[in-house]
């Protein structure tokens, strides 16, 4: 299966922190950011032909393209929304909450496995389970969600026991730092940047745990392998941490506080990532520390911009949400799971029956540039998913786990 670029976030879309009005309203800017991410995911994941603009493809190894932003943005968004969801439970252990976390984690993983198997089914080898890819974007996001949720509950328990409210945020900050430093050390000390599976410790780890036949083989390292999933969880942890700082206390003007937290936090991470890029390369395949910090920085800054346009300034909110791109993003942002899984299944089926190639060739016959013909194909796919998602959005039907 083609390497997916993102996976949808499955937190309740009705999670609602206080806004500038002082009432509990939907965090519309989060839905818009999620929608933009899903739209971009579907767009870059459905390019056709061999000639695609470089920025719409994943970087082969070191470096970062527009396509490389989608998945980490989703993990960051998941962290923000997880805070809003877990806050309703006061971050306290309970049987219903643990069941809820476990259910979502398992279902996300199972859906990812199902997509991998569906690709094998349409390729005509549904019983070749010995070569079924175990990991994937859905599987990784499930593991990141489960890890973050349980880590938060543990640190919240410590905070209550110590009587220190800052213990949860302090503990999460320390955990993020430890994971990033550890991952940087392992990458630099044990060949994590080697473009050779035989000498790259991430590839060797995944081969040992999962087996070579169950991995992605279009790059030396499985980009969603187990070996880098803990590092990927940092994107979710950072999103959660920023949300806790932004929405953790009742304030007279909470939207502006959130704007400041995401803006300042994103700026700080951007400076840190830029400084470290001189020593550690940006690399999605190995989920390098600079990649973590840079993508979280960009996601936070974009979230800050959307908070300003949607949650702070009423006139901008009216235009952003009710018209044009803003309205379109809400279609994708309120049903990301349905539209992501639907787009993957439709793409697999169309490819299997030859429709994808036929339609791309038709476009290419009318558009001389192969790259622009690919863009036209991707836009058609986004339009198709819009038609699938619009009735659900119109009827306020939100499909979630």
TrEMBL record:
<feature type="transmembrane region" description="Helical">
    <location>
        <begin position="288"/>
        <end position="316"/>
    </location>
</feature>
<feature type="transmembrane region" description="Helical">
    <location>
        <begin position="225"/>
        <end position="247"/>
    </location>
</feature>
<keyword id="KW-0812">Transmembrane</keyword>
<protein>
    <submittedName>
        <fullName>Heparan-alpha-glucosaminide N-acetyltransferase domain-containing protein</fullName>
    </submittedName>
</protein>
<feature type="transmembrane region" description="Helical">
    <location>
        <begin position="139"/>
        <end position="159"/>
    </location>
</feature>
<keyword id="KW-0472">Membrane</keyword>
<dbReference type="Pfam" id="PF07786">
    <property type="entry name" value="HGSNAT_cat"/>
</dbReference>
<feature type="transmembrane region" description="Helical">
    <location>
        <begin position="106"/>
        <end position="127"/>
    </location>
</feature>
<feature type="transmembrane region" description="Helical">
    <location>
        <begin position="337"/>
        <end position="360"/>
    </location>
</feature>
<feature type="transmembrane region" description="Helical">
    <location>
        <begin position="171"/>
        <end position="193"/>
    </location>
</feature>
<feature type="transmembrane region" description="Helical">
    <location>
        <begin position="372"/>
        <end position="393"/>
    </location>
</feature>
<feature type="domain" description="Heparan-alpha-glucosaminide N-acetyltransferase catalytic">
    <location>
        <begin position="26"/>
        <end position="124"/>
    </location>
</feature>
<keyword id="KW-1133">Transmembrane helix</keyword>
<feature type="compositionally biased region" description="Low complexity">
    <location>
        <begin position="1"/>
        <end position="21"/>
    </location>
</feature>
<feature type="transmembrane region" description="Helical">
    <location>
        <begin position="32"/>
        <end position="49"/>
    </location>
</feature>
<feature type="transmembrane region" description="Helical">
    <location>
        <begin position="69"/>
        <end position="86"/>
    </location>
</feature>
<dbReference type="InterPro" id="IPR012429">
    <property type="entry name" value="HGSNAT_cat"/>
</dbReference>
<feature type="transmembrane region" description="Helical">
    <location>
        <begin position="259"/>
        <end position="282"/>
    </location>
</feature>
<feature type="region of interest" description="Disordered">
    <location>
        <begin position="1"/>
        <end position="22"/>
    </location>
</feature>
């Amino acid at each position: 299966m083609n390497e997916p670029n993102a996976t949808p976030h499955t937190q309740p879309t009705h999670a609602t922190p206080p806004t500038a009005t002082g009432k509990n309203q939907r965090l519309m800017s989060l839905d818009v950011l999620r929608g933009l991410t899903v739209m971009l995911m579907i767009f870059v994941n459905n390019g056709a032909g061999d000639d695609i603009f470089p920025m719409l493809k994943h970087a082969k190894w070191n470096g970062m393209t527009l396509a490389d932003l989608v998945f980490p943005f989703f993990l960051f968004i998941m962290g923000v929304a997880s805070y809003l969801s877990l806050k309703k439970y006061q971050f306290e252990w309970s049987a219903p909450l643990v069941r809820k976390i476990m259910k979502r984690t398992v279902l996300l993983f199972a859906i990812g496995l199902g997509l991998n198997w569906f690709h094998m089914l349409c390729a005509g080898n549904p019983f070749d389970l010995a070569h079924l890819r175990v990991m994937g974007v859905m599987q990784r996001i499930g593991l990141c969600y489960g890890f973050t949720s349980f880590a938060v509950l543990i640190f919240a328990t410590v905070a209550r026991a110590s009587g220190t409210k800052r213990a949860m945020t302090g503990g999460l900050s320390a955990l993020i730092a430890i994971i990033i430093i550890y991952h940087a050390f392992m990458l630099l000390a044990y060949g994590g940047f080697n473009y050779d599976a035989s000498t790259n410790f991430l590839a060797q780890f995944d081969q040992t745990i999962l087996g070579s036949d169950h991995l992605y083989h279009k790059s030396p390292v499985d980009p969603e392998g187990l070996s880098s999933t803990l590092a990927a969880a940092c994107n979710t942890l950072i999103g959660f941490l920023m949300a806790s700082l932004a929405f953790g206390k009742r304030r007279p003007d909470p939207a502006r506080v959130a704007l400041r937290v995401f803006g300042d936090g994103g700026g700080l991470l951007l400076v840190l990532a830029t400084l470290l890029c001189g020593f550690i390369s940006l690399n999605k395949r190995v989920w390098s520390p600079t990649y973590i910090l840079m993508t979280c920085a960009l996601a936070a800054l974009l979230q800050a911009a959307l908070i300003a346009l949607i949650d702070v300034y009423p006139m901008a909110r009216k235009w952003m949400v009710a018209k044009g791109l803003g309205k379109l993003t809400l279609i994708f942002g309120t049903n990301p799971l349905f539209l992501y899984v639907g787009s993957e299944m439709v793409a697999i089926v169309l490819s299997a029956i030859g429709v994808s190639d036929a339609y791309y060739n038709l476009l290419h016959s009318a558009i001389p540039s192969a790259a622009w013909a690919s863009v036209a194909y991707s836009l058609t796919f986004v339009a198709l998913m819009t038609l699938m998602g619009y009735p659900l959005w119109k009827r306020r039907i939100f499909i979630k786990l």
